[in-house]
């Protein structure tokens, strides 16, 4: 398969970048923008609090299953054709979601939206790597990373504003103008890449789909089904283990496997997958924790919550703009270490949150975390593909996106479970001090000791807030530990060698 060899001859590079990034941001936004609209959807679609979550689950599972097949579809249909089809299908399904008349129709349209949207992110990364020379890959990944990481941050804020100002249907209608611009720009300027005849390993795809789909279902349904006390979760866990195990054995033994195992022999790429898994855990897990914390403990409305969290995205943008320019002259591994340390520092600060603080500590820690994640994401995205053969690039970007999404799902599930269970434990421990024999209670609230219902209710509310705050703090400490544990992986990354000037003798490991 041919790719643009002479990068300087790629016309309209700037317009191509804008077009594909609009499509990327549109798709990434939809992973979080609909979350805040779920309560409004419940009544209109005749759903319950339990069943409305299928609006999110169907999208996540469909996108996860279809992401790995991006490489084969791109070879078979052509990258440009697949990208255009994905954008059109995503926009059409978004419009159908906006006019959905029942929960069943919404879930069906969201599922198809996930199917069409799955290829957009990995293809956009592939295009940016293809149309830029290797010395500009850092800047290209900075642009791509900004859309990937800032999208989920602004999603809840934009979704809340659209829901409050108009109604929940505009959460989906907003994709129409963005999608039209992305399609027209991509149709006009994206280069045509030659197709490649490639056999389709249906059994390998089926086993990987079984593993990924069952895992995503388990992670998304776990909280509602009470995790491993539910037969459903055990079945999904068994299917996930079976699917992944059979897929790995088949991949290593088949003549033409769905994913070529040689792709994992590239040390930088394999290590990059582990790193991006950790980034997925930290990025979306913290995003999942903060909005309910700000709403429940601090009483912030949706718009205020979005404004308080917005500086996190600003920090990410700043670090990506900077690192995109210096990644060529500074060892990418040093940037990753600095980014991880900044992220750990922000989580350490967040572990000192209390119900009595103002918003400044939330804003400042968010900026530091944004700076840190940006410093990790760009050099990591650059180094992970620096030594990988270009023929594996589309499969590799699909795996990169899949592992990041799985990390996000696992991270959100873990912190949510720990939050709920620690809340119960903390409430029991704090409640043990509420007794008539505690002299501090006599001093703080004599009425509560004497059994006044209003005083006891206020006291229980205070215990709930403190127990919940301690649970959030414990989650932040856990994420800090995960971040620090990822540091030793830096020794597995190799510094990519720069191609000689003039293009002669460029190593095949990183050049087409």
TrEMBL record:
Protein's cellular compartments: Cell membrane
Chain ranges of the Major facilitator superfamily (MFS) profile domain: 16-498
SUPFAM superfamilies registered for this protein in UniProt: MFS general substrate transporter
PROSITE patterns per the UniProt record, alphabetical: MFS, SUGAR_TRANSPORT_1
Record's keyword terms, sorted: Cell membrane, Membrane, Transmembrane, Transmembrane helix, Transport
Annotated transmembrane regions: 54-74, 81-101, 107-129, 141-162, 168-190, 202-219, 231-252, 273-294, 300-323, 330-348, 360-386, 476-493
Pfam families listed in its UniProt record: MFS_1
CDD domains: MFS_LmrB_MDR_like (cd17503)
Chief place where the protein resides: membrane
Full protein name: DHA2 family efflux MFS transporter permease subunit
Lineage, top ranks: Bacteria, Pseudomonadati, Pseudomonadota, Alphaproteobacteria, Hyphomicrobiales
């Amino acid at each position: 398969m041919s790719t643009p060899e002479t990068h300087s001859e790629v016309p309209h590079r700037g317009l191509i970048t804008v077009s594909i990034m609009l499509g990327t941001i549109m798709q990434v936004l939809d992973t979080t923008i609909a979350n805040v609209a779920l309560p409004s959807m419940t009544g209109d679609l005749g759903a319950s609090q339990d069943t409305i979550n299928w609006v999110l689950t169907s999208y996540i599972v469909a996108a996860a299953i279809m992401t790995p097949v991006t490489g084969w579809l791109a070879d078979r249909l052509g990258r440009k054709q697949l990208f255009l089809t994905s954008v059109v299908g995503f926009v059409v399904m978004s419009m159908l979601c906006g006019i959905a008349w029942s929960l069943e129709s919404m879930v069906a349209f969201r599922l198809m939206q996930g199917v069409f949207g799955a290829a957009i992110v990995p293809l956009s990364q592939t295009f940016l790597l293809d149309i830029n020379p290797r010395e500009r890959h850092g800047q290209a990944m900075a642009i791509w990373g900004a859309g990937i990481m800032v999208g989920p941050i602004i999603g809840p804020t934009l979704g809340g504003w659209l829901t409050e100002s108009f109604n929940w249907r505009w959460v989906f209608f907003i994709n129409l103008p963005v999608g039209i611009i992305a399609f027209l720009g991509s149709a006009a300027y994206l280069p045509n890449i030659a197709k490649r005849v490639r056999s389709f390993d249906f059994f390998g795809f089926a086993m990987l789909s079984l593993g990924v789909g069952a895992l995503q279902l388990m992670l998304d349904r776990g909280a509602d089904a009470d995790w491993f006390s539910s037969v459903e979760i055990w079945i999904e866990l068994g299917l996930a283990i079976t699917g992944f195990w059979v897929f790995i054995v088949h991949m290593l033994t088949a003549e033409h496997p769905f994913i070529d195992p040689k792709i994992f022999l590239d040390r930088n790429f394999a290590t990059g997958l582990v790193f991006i898994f950790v980034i997925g855990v930290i990025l979306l897990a913290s995003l999942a924790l903060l909005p309910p914390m700000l709403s429940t403990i601090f009483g912030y409305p949706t718009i205020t919550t979005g404004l308080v969290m917005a500086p996190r995205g600003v920090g990410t943008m700043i670090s990506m703009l900077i690192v995109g320019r210096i990644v060529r002259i500074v060892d990418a591994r040093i940037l990753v270490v600095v980014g991880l340390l900044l992220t750990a520092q922000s989580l350490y600060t967040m572990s000192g949150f209390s119900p009595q603080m103002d918003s400044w500590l939330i804003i400042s820690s968010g900026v530091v975390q944004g700076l840190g994640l940006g410093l990790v994401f760009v050099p990591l995205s650059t180094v992970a593909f620096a030594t990988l053969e270009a023929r594996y690039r589309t499969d590799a970007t699909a795996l990169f996106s899949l592992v990041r999404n799985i990390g996000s799902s696992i991270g959100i599930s873990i912190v949510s479970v720990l939050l709920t269970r620690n809340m119960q434990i903390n409430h029991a421990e704090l409640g043990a001090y509420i007794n008539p024999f505690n002299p501090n209670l006599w001093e703080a609230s004599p009425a509560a000791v004497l059994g006044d219902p209003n005083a006891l209710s206020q006291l229980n509310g205070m215990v709930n807030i403190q127990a919940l705050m301690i649970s959030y703090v414990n989650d932040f400490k856990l994420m800090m530990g995960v971040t620090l544990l990822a540091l030793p992986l830096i020794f597995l990354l190799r510094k990519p060698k720069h191609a000689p000037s003039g293009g002669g003798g460029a190593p095949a490991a990183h050049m087409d």
